[in-house]
Write a structure and sequence with these properties.
Number of strands: 22
Oligomer: single chain
Helix content: 40-55%
Number of helices: 35
Low-confidence stretches: 751-770
Strand order of the largest sheet: 1-4-5-6-7-8
Distance between the termini: 49 Å
Largest sheet: 6 strands, mixed
Strand content: 5-15%
Structural class: alpha/beta
Length: 939
């Protein structure tokens, strides 16, 4: 049976869209695109133009619009799309031009085109383009059935680098499909394949088939609504975000209830599924409904205030009024603020104290909507009851990943009793299936069973601490990720901290806990007439921990500034700021086990009794999606929590099998890995067989086969029982390294910086799938964050050219770089640097080490800059093009982090060659310039 071709898929999609009311327009090149844009813009603004007795824009007026649209970043252009433009007509009159009708989203002009050709760094033909009011707002890339969907994603990423410009910078959404699998994502370059989503119905049933996706997601009114209402402009990261289907349905259910009833409700979305974004959209869109006077977003603990407010501010600055104290809250409630964020404690104070609530008598009768964050926490006590009683026209909605049911209720009150019916569910099993969160690897450390009864036993704690330090690098990929350690109590935390400190760890360890002024002071000597075991109270112990922290990071925190200390730890655990040293391991009691999101956190150690919602909340700190290397959240239990884990998973998965959430045991994973290795080695018995691969097809098959080995190895190596030298594995460590080297030869190329041949790049026919260009090599799995320029410089600084093992250690540095996917192409550069600064200057190197004047980083920068200039000069001479144009291209890239191919186009125009040859030369030069950028980029 013949596989459906990409062209047949394309034709079928266009037919479906036309049947759904789209107008088909043939646009062969960019000139036609601009002409059509002018026509559609005039049509969309017909009423406004008619007020000035006009039907059309003059060429000069349209040129003003194009100039306005051309300026700014992709993020700024997304804002322009949603704004009105005050166009001054040639008559001197002003008309407000609308590019998108955000409020009546069905009343836009929808068109579909295909195979639009765009000249950029490469000549590219885009598969299917949806135009709204003449602007290309949705781009669809297709691959024929049977091909990997990720190839379509990679093709779009390549277009970002080589061709998207002009009006195509206004794309809001991308869609990728191979007919049987279809996903969509926002125009946020290089956000990662993990952030592409399939569309579903309200019950989370996926619409993977392209025709079904087109009939539902791409239906004109639905698409108009998604672009108008459900794309978020994230001010913090200056990027576009689009809601996932379960977020969309949750917001729609809340809005429907606000508009059509007075009933309350709650949303059950598993932890890690983007609750803040969903609740923000709910609050924002609810505040726009006629008749709604106030929307309050209520958190239940002060330690969530900073994080939640900063997240809200990132979505839309100014949408949230911060309330640092009760006076400020009164001011906001009685003023014009539409959306307010506060805590349940401050709100309770405001309405129960006569001094405050006398100012709130007017607002208590207004229509108020409250959205509660994590509605299982503080909403079962008097504060919540007081709030509900005070407001006469109140609707409340709650969000939770772990609702309170009869089984896990400690106060005999359930979430349903407080908030009403569940409006939408998205459970952990759904999120794992959709790859929106990760599953868990749960391992149980037994240790010395004789000490398991006395949890505070010094020997037991020291044994566990040694285990953590010994296995930390395995769990966290050599510190690329970090970990939390949850302890039962403050005394246990303090004991662990002191033991860790006594073991002189190489990793950075911190601790945090909240304390009360008059907490329980009982200790081991209570009742024995021996006085106190220690005269220090919890605050004193915390200050000592803070003192260590201050010495480690150069800070100056004290218990008087606990909030600042907590915020600083929050930032270091998130590992987002490159200029901020991260914390590797954080000891906690309760803090950071709920409400803390960090994609770089992958391990949780537990010496604490946890159950039901507390257990799943704690586990979920580790399962945020990041990349291919982070395959699951790793949990190491130092107590037997298996029955609690199983009960919790079942409760919050609607009794689905635990196996859907928890990773299989090591023996099962090893068996599966060995079976994959046997299949691989049957086709590629030894590393020499890779040298015999000649065609692109053969190399592609090898890449796909070994990529699966890499993925499975990344997964199994995190298990505590994994030993790379274990004889039970079918492939030895040396064999893996050899195959890995061949894999990197194909993915990155051989280690050389000499310029490649000047043979032109062959044109790839439309629909051809043989190229390696769009294969995802998953190179992050073959790169360690610790192997960077600082690490390499440390190794070089440790060299002793007079030692007998100098050559061996020198070669180890080069080998370390060759084995790393990112550093591989820089190995020859470092080899030359060592030759110049050590091999040829032995005495100078040794003397500068001895007197402390060595500045390897400065010397490397100088060496790199010189080598880059020489590479550019060589390229200019080799291709006979203007050196200044090449240098300007690189300077612009350094500044903008974006290529400007027009600079090379102009330089090549000066060569007296035919058009076809000119394009070949231009593409070749751009490819070599990109190689230079990759070679000399050390970020």
């Amino acid at each position: 049976m013949v596989t459906q071709s990409e062209q047949a898929l394309e034709n079928g999609l266009i037919k479906t869209l036309i049947e759904n009311g789209y107008e088909y327009i043939q646009i062969k090149e960019e000139e036609n695109l601009y002409a059509n844009f002018k026509t559609q813009l005039e049509k969309h603004n017909k009423k406004q133009l008619k007020l000035h007795s006009r039907e059309h824009l003059t060429d000069k007026e349209f040129e003003k619009i194009l100039i306005y649209l051309e300026g700014g970043t992709r993020f700024e252009k997304a804002k322009k799309l949603r704004d009105l433009y005050p166009l001054e007509l040639e008559t001197g009159e002003r008309v407000w031009i609308e590019f998108l009708n955000k409020n009546k989203w069905c009343q836009n002009e929808f068109q579909v085109s295909n195979q639009i050709t765009v000249e950029g760094r490469k000549t590219c033909r885009y598969d299917v383009t949806i135009l709204i009011n003449g602007l290309p707002l949705v781009q669809i890339e297709l691959k024929k059935r049977g091909l990997e969907l990720k190839e379509a994603y990679n093709q779009i990423q390549r277009y970002h680098k080589t061709s998207f410009n002009g009006l195509f910078d206004y794309i809001q959404l991308f869609v990728i499909s191979n007919g049987v699998n279809t996903r969509y994502f926002a125009n946020n370059p290089n956000s990662g394949y993990k952030f592409t989503f399939n569309w579903t119905d309200a019950n989370n049933k996926p619409f993977n088939d392209l025709s079904m996706f087109a009939n539902f997601f791409l239906e004109k009114c639905n698409l108009g609504k998604m672009i108008s209402k459900y794309i978020v402009l994230h001010e913090g990261d200056k990027c576009l975000m689009v809601l996932r289907p379960y977020q969309f349905y949750a917001v729609e259910r809340i809005l429907d209830r606000v508009q059509n009833s007075t009933n309350n409700g709650y949303i059950w979305h598993t932890t890690g599924a983007g609750k803040t974004l969903t609740s923000f959209k709910s609050a924002q869109l609810a505040s726009e409904i006629d008749g709604i006077d106030k929307v309050l977003f209520v958190v239940d603990r002060r330690d969530l205030d900073t994080q939640t407010q900063s997240e809200y501010e990132a979505f839309e600055p100014g949408a949230v009024d911060s309330t640092d104290n009760t006076h400020e809250l009164i001011k906001r409630l009685s003023g014009n603020s539409k959306i307010i964020i506060t805590t349940i404690q401050k709100l309770n104070t405001a309405i129960t104290k006569d001094y405050y609530n006398k100012h709130l008598q007017e607002v208590r009768n207004k229509k108020v909507v409250m959205i509660f964050d994590e509605c299982h926490r503080s909403h079962f006590g008097d504060s919540h009851k007081n709030i509900v009683r005070f407001f006469d026209n109140l609707q409340i909605f709650g969000f939770t990943g772990t609702p309170i049911f009869v089984q896990n209720s400690k106060q005999d009150i359930t979430t349903k009793e407080v908030f009403g019916e569940c409006l939408h569910k998205y459970l952990i099993k759904d999120a794992i299936a959709d790859e929106n969160v990760l599953g868990f690897l749960v391992e149980y450390y037994r240790g010395n069973e004789d000490q398991s009864i006395d949890f505070m036993n010094e020997t037991r704690i020291r044994e566990i601490a040694k285990f953590v330090l010994t296995n930390f690098n395995k769990s966290t990929f050599d510190g690329e990720y970090n970990a939390l350690f949850a302890t039962q109590s403050i005394p246990m935390l303090i004991q662990y901290y002191k033991v860790f400190k006594d073991l002189n760890p190489l990793i950075k360890i911190g601790a945090i806990f909240t304390y009360t002024a008059n907490g329980n002071q009982d200790d081991e000597q209570t009742g024995m007439n021996l006085g106190f075991e220690s005269e220090m109270v919890d605050a004193d112990e915390l200050q000592l921990i803070m003192d260590d922290y201050n010495r480690m990071f150069g800070t100056a925190y004290s218990t008087d500034n606990f909030r600042g200390y907590a915020d600083d730890i929050n930032l270091r655990m998130k590992k987002k700021k490159p200029d901020m040293q991260p914390l590797d391991l954080l000891l906690v009691v309760n803090m950071f086990l709920t409400g803390f999101d960090a994609k770089k956190l992958n391990t949780l150690y537990i010496d604490k009794n946890l159950e039901y919602h507390g257990l799943l909340q704690a586990f979920s700190r580790t399962n945020r999606v990041l990349n291919e290397k982070k395959r699951f959240g790793k949990i190491v239990c130092f107590r037997d929590l298996k029955s609690n884990v199983d009960a919790s998973i079942k409760l919050f998965s609607d009794e689905n099998p635990v196996e859907d959430i928890i990773r299989p045991p090591f023996d099962e994973i090893k068996k599966d890995f060995n079976e994959s290795l046997l299949d691989f080695k049957e086709k590629y018995p030894n590393v020499n067989s890779i040298d015999e691969l000649k065609s692109e097809y053969e190399k592609r098959d090898f890449v796909l086969a070994f990529r699966e080995i890499i993925k499975k190895r990344a997964e199994i190596q995190v298990y505590e029982d994994f030993d790379k030298d274990n004889n039970d594995l079918v492939m030895t460590e040396q064999e893996f390294e050899d195959f890995r080297s061949k894999y990197l030869d194909i993915a990155v190329g051989n280690v050389q910086i000499e310029s490649s041949s000047t043979v032109g790049e062959p044109e790839i026919p439309y629909g051809d799938d043989r190229t390696l260009d769009d294969i995802d090599f998953c190179l992050e799995l073959l790169h360690s964050d610790i192997i960077n320029v600082a690490y390499i410089l440390e190794l070089i600084a440790d060299l002793n050219p007079s030692a007998d093992d100098y050559q061996e250690k020198r070669q180890q540095i080069i080998d370390t770089m060759i084995k790393d996917a990112v550093m591989r192409n820089k190995a020859k550069l470092i080899d030359g640097f060592i030759r110049q600064n050590i091999d040829n200057n032995k005495n100078g190197f040794e003397n500068s080490k001895a007197d402390g004047s060595i500045d390897l980083e400065g010397k490397l920068n100088e060496y790199m800059n010189k080598a880059r200039r020489e590479a550019v000069e060589y390229l200019a001479e080799e291709e006979d093009v203007d050196l200044e144009a090449l240098s300007q291209f690189l300077d612009e890239y350094d500044y903008l982090q974006r290529e400007k191919p027009e600079l090379i186009t102009e330089a090549v125009k000066k060569k007296k060659v035919k058009l076809k040859e000119r394009k070949t030369i231009q593409n070749r030069i751009l490819r070599k310039l990109r190689d230079i950028i990759g070679m000399f980029n050390w970020e």
